Amino acid sequence: MSPARGEVPAVIADVRLTGSERTDPFGDDPVDVHLAEGFIVDVAPAGALPRRGLVLDGAGSTLIPGLWDHHVHVVQWALAAQREPLGGATSAAHAAAIMGAAEILPDGRRVGTGFRDALWPDAPTLELLDARTGEIPTYLINADVHSVWLNSAALRREGFEPDGGGILREEPAFEISRRLNSAAAEVVDPQVERMARDASARGVVGLVDLDMAWNEEAWARRTAAGFDALRVEFGIYPQHLDRALADGLQSGDIARGAASDLARVGPLKVITDGSLGTRTAACSHSYPGDPRNHGLLTVDAATLVDLMTQATAAGISCAIHAIGDVANTQALDAFASTGAWGTIEHAQLVAHSDSPRFARLGVGASVQPEHAIDDRDMTDSIWAEQTAQPYPLRSLADTGANLLFGSDAPVAPLDPWAAMASAVFRTRDGREPWQPHQGVATTTALAASTHGGSTSPARVDPGGRADLALCAIDPLGADERELRGMTVAATLLDGRLTHLG
Question: What is the largest CA-CA distance in the chain?
């Protein structure tokens, strides 16, 4: 009998193994992987042991550890399916025209997402957007989520005084996103379920959810309703830290009220600077044409140290958003002075002297390789005068840093194969590779896409969790096109089939 989605095979038959730091003796020979109670209990030459119970026939395909996305804004990514895509807008006028024709949502708003205005030939203005959208409250969310463009009707609805531009940046922009994302559970949860099925179809078994909300109750609710597609580690933001401390939460704890162990407490997430696209990332050199603009630190050093000290004392890891080189230096300094453990999120522009500090301090580099390709033209323009290294994947890997790959969805699609392809080949759409000297080996990219990251990768070994994915071809031999188009035939979580192609 062939298994079906939701069933639990006892044997994955006739597969080949791959990955970094292999210690098995099988090379390219086919093997059978025997499972029980959510774990791998044996790996043996194909047919060497009896195939008892339900068998999943691998037909010679490649078995890898299940993949993780280490940075996702789950609700915002899930709701993006209902929002007008703006990634193709070539100007402010074009984006305004798209939104003027966009569908009005049931709550009476138009919402678009994914615009990139840094290289537009014209400036977004309130007058331009009002002329196209009228009295329908209209919201355009930047691809980097650090700015939003609202028309007058939306500004009034949200309690902001209309100004000449209609652009909100950083915390006011985040507040708009929080309001847009606070939809009812009956609206959000089916979209989250759809997102999770899509992720499973790409071999994903887990993610870190960094939604800007109190996430424990939402994930307890979802697991109680039957959510079982992914492991989730959810973040805690500074405005909720006192509550987490009072409740005794620690990283790794199972969410209280959850119906399974799939939802667990993750890190304290602190956003310490802005972004490249919004021109607010904190940098040592100014932005072109604006000599007073070095970006901004949104959390000062003393406050960051205090937050991280509190979290560390309570057993909560830290995930510190730092994009510009000044922000990365401040974050590394804070890790050094507090003894905190965790990650720097993004690490998009890093001083050459700071790259070795990640490994020395044991700080993971939670990076999003697709951003390098999305942002290459902005980087070459907006960061042309910076002397630090942009998107320094190879520099970090060579100094021993633990790389953990993610998407930052909805900033980039939740697709680990796209992240791996960008990390290795540093290109997309047939363009010449961008800064190819910062590309990493495919073994590193695959390891960075597992839970433990590049220095502690998951492996297909006896005793390991049966979080696995079955690929049509060996990722380590794939070219850029093959990696991006990887077919995943099956995904297993605790040995249970969450996807079957």
Answer: 74
Residue-wise pLDDT for 237-287, tens only, equals 999 999 999 999 999 999 999 999 999 999 999 999 999 999 999 999 999
- Enter the tokens of residue 134: 């009228």
Q: Is the dihedral of CA 343, 349, 354, 355 positive or negative?
A: positive
Q: Using an 8 Å Cβ cutoff, are 189 and 53 in contact?
A: no
DSSP 119: T
Cα–Cα distance measured from residue 329 to residue 403, given in angstroms and rounded to the nearest whole number:
18
At 165, is the pLDDT very low, low, confident or very high (cuts 50, 70, 90)? confident
Q: In the structure, how many helices (H) and strands (E) does the chain have?
A: 17, 23
Asked if omega into 369 is within 30° of 0 (cis), the reply is no
Mean pLDDT for the stretch of residues 318-334: 98
CA 332 to chain centre: 21
What torsion do the CA atoms of 296, 297, 299, 300 make, to the nearest 10 degrees? Answer: -120
At 21, the pLDDT band (50, 70, 90 cuts) reads confident
144 secondary structure, DSSP code: T
Quickly tell me which residue has 């199972």 as its tokens: 254
Strands 389-390 vs 403-405: parallel, antiparallel or unpaired: unpaired
C-alpha to C-alpha distance for 342 and 354, rounded to whole angstroms:
16
Q: How far apart are CA 420 and CA 404, in angstroms?
A: 11
- The 3-class secondary structure across 371-406, one letter per residue, is HHHHCHHHHHHHCCCCCCEECCHHHHHHCCCCEEEC
Which of 483, 488, 492, 486 is closest to 501 using CA atoms?
488
Asked if the bond preceding 410 is cis, omega within 30° of 0, the reply is yes
Residue 403 · residue 391 · CB < 8 Å: no
| Residues 148 and 173: beta-carbon distance below 8 Å | yes
Which pLDDT score is estimated for 1?
A: 62
Provide the sign of the torsion angle of the four alpha carbons 491, 232, 316, 179, taken in this order.
positive
The amino acid that residue 313 corresponds to is A
CB atoms within 10 A of CB 101: 10
Rg from Cα positions in the chain: 23
